[in-house]
Write a structure and sequence with these properties.
CATH architecture of the largest domain: 3-Layer(aba) Sandwich
Shape: globular
Distance between the termini: 32 Å
Helix content: 40-55%
EC number: 6.3.5.4
CATH topology of the largest domain: Rossmann fold
Radius of gyration: 24 Å
CATH superfamily of the largest domain: HUPs
Number of domains: 3
GO molecular function, one term: asparagine synthase (glutamine-hydrolyzing) activity
Strand order of the largest sheet: 2-3-1-9-8-10
Oligomer: single chain
Enzyme class: ligase
Strand content: 15-25%
Number of helices: 25
Largest sheet: 6 strands, antiparallel
Protein name: asparagine synthase (glutamine-hydrolyzing)
Pfam families: Asn_synthase (PF00733), GATase_7 (PF13537)
């Protein structure tokens, strides 16, 4: 896990581009130039800790240079196929990626199992190749005008290299709708994100971007497999995904919540280790409803792990500016603060940890998948019926202490009067289109990315459509985004075996009936773990990692509300103070849970203050 940088123009005088994101890779910071191009690398050493594996890395022939962020876990297997043709100088995956590209060009991407963002520069042909992993675990942002091209792992690096950036107002509206800025947009008009599963070639102003993988290509390929065959195949894939992600030359562990995802990972880690696994569990003040430390202790004892219970007391007042700084653009999921603190504390014991991100999307863990099943049963009821019920459900007050069930029920009933794509978008969205227009006093024209992705999936199976849409939108722009930003802020690497692309392909290829079956979410995972972990772990209800927003808004964030959501601040940003005031009243009265709406506005104001004054 590192930071990569490259550009084909002279850096501004006294530029700090090389050190501005040094936390991504404090072990080595190097810059080298080749013709018009300059490449730089911030290295966090994980595999092959020697100086010879530092980057930018040049091929033995001297014609190619690579900068790479991430891990290709099956690099040893790929290397075996290359050793007859190339003289390897290191034991790193970086060198394997470079020679595999020289051997196969863009076809090399088909071989890689892992997370990556990298570029290879062909010096003789003056051609730059770049790629991002299939799920978008590692970030890649770029800037292009008629003559200049620059890329990096973080927006703040490009801000240091190019001047005159302008705010992307479409991205602001998208942020308020989804709590993140979806790729390929960024908060700046001139900076784009390379989308997951895409590669590019750039030469003398010409940029060509191509998609190289899509989970939709696997839909229905193994629909006729029996449950026994499915379990056998899934067992193999999970075991191999975890095994590969345990390769490291530094101390490694696993995040353990006591939930089904992290328990699955621990089970397979234990199978592949001859020593106790390091496990790390997060607990925090005010989180009684979401406390899983006791369940994590049961799992740790069951597998005799070297267990660490990390209890944090996050100071949101101090952490909010840090969070906004590391995201470079508005980001509205407050769980990111907890991940920042978890990785900061875990760094005292290890440099790498496996985590269960993506398990809900792949195996059917979110309440919205249960909602999709329910919709299938009642979709024949006329929409006018649900529209007539909406006014009555709006009268029901919501729980603002952190229990989202009532809010979800109200959202679900309200959405039933809409077309299915808009229904799904309502389930995962926050500010409505009407509310965004009211907030800015004018109609906001922006691309509703989630709708577009949903409608492009060639399946009538609502579970498959929602799951793939989540993978392409919510997972990459939300969970993977904060996972990378917050862990890298602490020079820490997080590995995600449950979203190994082979597992995604397989789960997409079988019937969605196996995601939720016999009233059980994550049916296949629970079936696999039966008899291997305590039954209370398998049968426990889903909790999730959520901060105590109700408590934060009353205490830590009260000062931010007073200043950041004041009439002066709100109107300075061209927003409607009367509407913001109404949000506060609704929340404080308990009528509606507006915690994340208010949080997103606070974050937006903090971003303005850090970047635009």
């Amino acid at each position: 896990m590192c930071g990569i940088i490259g550009f084909n123009f002279k850096a501004p005088d006294h530029s700090a581009f090389l050190n501005i994101a040094e936390y991504r890779g404090p072990d080595n910071v190097t810059t080298r130039s080749f013709g018009e191009y300059t490449f730089a690398h911030n290295r966090l050493s994980i595999i092959d800790l020697t100086e010879g594996a530092n980057q930018p890395f040049v091929s033995a022939c001297g014609n190619f240079v690579i900068v790479f962020n991430g891990e290709v876990y099956n690099y040893k297997e790929i290397r075996k196929n290359l050793e007859g043709k190339y003289a390897f100088r290191t034991k790193s995956d970086t060198e394997v990626i470079l020679y595999n590209y020289i051997e196969k060009k863009e076809k090399c991407l088909e071989d890689f199992i892992g997370m990556f963002a990298f570029t290879v520069y062909d010096i003789k042909k003056d051609t730059l190749f770049g790629a991002r992993d299939r799920l978008g675990i590692k970030p890649f942002v770029y800037y292009k005008n008629e003559r200049q091209f620059a890329f990096a792992s973080e927006i703040k690096v490009l801000k240091e290299l190019v001047k005159g950036l302008s705010v992307n107002h479409e991205a602001v509206s998208q942020y308020l709708r989804y709590l993140y800025v979806p790729s390929p947009n960024s908060i700046y008009q001139e900076i784009k994100k390379l989308e997951p599963a895409h590669y590019f070639f750039y030469k003398q102003g010409d940029l060509k971007i191509t998609k190289y993988w899509d989970s939709i290509d696997s839909i229905g390929l193994n629909y006729d497999l029996s449950e026994g065959e499915i379990l056998d195949k899934l067992d193999y894939l999970l075991n191999d995904a975890v095994r590969l992600r345990m390769i490291a030359d530094v101390e490694l562990g696993s995040f353990l919540s006591g939930g089904i995802d992290s328990s699955t990972i621990l089970y397979y880690m234990a199978k592949n280790s001859n020593k106790p696994i390091n496990t790390f569990t997060l607990g925090f003040a005010g989180a009684d409803k979401y406390d899983e430390t006791s369940d994590a202790k049961k799992m740790a004892a069951h597998f005799n792990t070297n267990h660490h219970e990390i209890i944090i007391h996050p100071n949101v007042t101090d952490l909010l500016p840090k969070m906004v700084h590391h995201f470079d653009e508005p980001f509205g999921n407050p769980t990111s603060i907890l991940i920042h603190e978890l990785t900061r504390e875990t760094k005292k014991y290890a440099t790498v940890a496996l985590a269960g991100d993506g398990g809900d999307e792949i195996f059917g863990g979110y309440p919205r998948y249960e909602a999709a099943l329910l919709y299938n049963k009642i979709k024949f009821v006329p929409r006018l019926f649900w529209k007539a019920l909406n006014p009555f459900f709006k009268l029901i007050s919501e729980d603002i202490s952190g229990n989202h069930k009532l809010r979800r029920v109200k959202t679900f009933v309200n959405s039933l009067s809409k077309p299915v794509d808009e229904m799904y978008e309502d389930w995962i969205a926050y500010f409505s289109i009407k509310e965004i227009n009211t907030l800015f006093k004018v109609e906001q024209d922006f691309n509703r990315v989630v709708l577009d992705v949903f409608n492009a999936i060639p399946s009538q199976d609502l579970i498959i459509k929602t799951s793939i849409t989540d993978l392409k939108t919510f997972l990459v722009n939300n969970l993977l985004n904060y996972g990378d930003a917050m862990s890298m802020a602490n020079s820490f690497e997080v590995r995600l075996p449950l979203i190994d692309h082979r597992i995604i392909e397989f789960m997409t290829s079988i019937s969605s009936d196996y995601r939720i079956k016999d009233g059980q979410t994550k049916y296949l995972m629970k079936k696999l773990l039966k008899g291997k972990v305590p039954d209370e772990i398998i049968n426990k209800p889903k909790l999730g990692l959520n901060p105590p927003m109700g408590l934060w808004l009353k205490n830590d964030l009260n000062g931010f509300i007073t200043t950041y959501l004041s009439k002066k601040s709100v109107e300075k940003r061209g927003m409607n103070y009367q509407f913001v005031s109404q949000l506060l009243k609704e929340h404080n009265s308990g009528k509606r849970d507006r915690s994340l709406y208010l949080w997103s506005l606070i974050v937006l104001e903090e971003w303005h203050r850090q970047n635009l004054n």
